[in-house]
Amino acid sequence: MQEIKGRYVDLDAREIYGAVMTIDDEGRIASIQRDPSRDKRGWFILPGFVDAHVHIESSMLLPVEFAKLAVVHGTVATVSDPHEIANVMGLEGVEYMIDNARHTALSIHFGAPSCVPATTAETAGARIDAEGVAELLSRPDISYLSEMMNYPGVLHAEPGVMAKIDAAQAMGKPVDGHAPGLKGEQAAAYADAGISTDHECFTAAEARDKLAVGMKILIREGSAARNYAALEELIDEFPDRLMFCTDDCHPDDLMAGHINRLVVRAVRGGHDLFKVLRIACRNAVEHYNLPIGQLRVGDRADFIQVDDLRHFGIMATYINGVRVAEAGAHLLPDHRPEPINNFNCSPKVPEDFRIAPGPEGGKLRVIGVTDGELVTDHLVLTPVLDDTGRPVAAPERDLLKIAVINRYQDAPVALGFVQGMKMQRGAIASSVAHDSHNIVVVGVDDEAMCRIANAVIAERGGIAAGRDEYLEVLPLPVAGIMSLERGPQVAARYGELNGFVRRKLRCELAAPFMTLSFLALLVIPSLKLSDRGLFDGAAFEPVDLWVESE
Question: What would the mean pLDDT of 463-490 be, rounded to a whole number?
Answer without folding.
Answer: 96
